[in-house]
Target: Transcriptional regulator
Amino acid sequence: MAILSRARRVSAAFVKIADTLVADYDVVDLLHTLVEESVALLDAAAAGLLLVDPAGDLQVMASTSEKSELVEVLQLEAGVGPCVDCFRTGAVVTIDDIASNGSKWPQFQSAALSQGFMSVHAVPMRLRGQTIGALNLFGQEVGPLSAEDAAIAQAFADVATISLLQERALRESTIVNDQLQRALNSRIVIEQAKGVIAHTANVTIDQAFALLRSYARANNQPLYETSKRVTERLITITS
Model:
């Protein structure tokens, strides 16, 4: 019964993600759905997602917590780490014991351990020969993901990749760059809005994002539009 229940949950997660694959879908909301479903269904304490921008630089696009976002930002600043290696090689990178096996990346190792993460599983977002980012799963326990969870994580990453590299974008690379740039620009405004809500509502950054996303969905607005209205003080979102 437990197996059936989990199978249904995985199926529901794919349906939820697939629901975003429509014209003019909200890229940022898709990526946040991806990391949230990864944590909900897989043996991970937190998840984050990196995307490459048109200039070839990796950017943090979604995370389930400020802790995992901090670890990924520090990796990007250092230019090294398992998640960065995953993107550069297009191959899965698993560190089942960061304390013992993460010394190759001392800055990442220190940051991850300081946030309570003991393991990481990085999955490339890759289609054919093109890698556009990485989905990263952080664990609070030592040990690798099970083979089943690793396969589901890769499937989630594949769905997101296909959604970003649709057929029209594959035919015209400038469309891919435009779409990724819009997502990156949206992220900046969303981060600003989270700060505004955290201050005005006296909540944490994570809670601020939950309020922002809930408001956007309740009012059938893209996250970017709602965030823009928050930063321009056209609306006030409180708990």
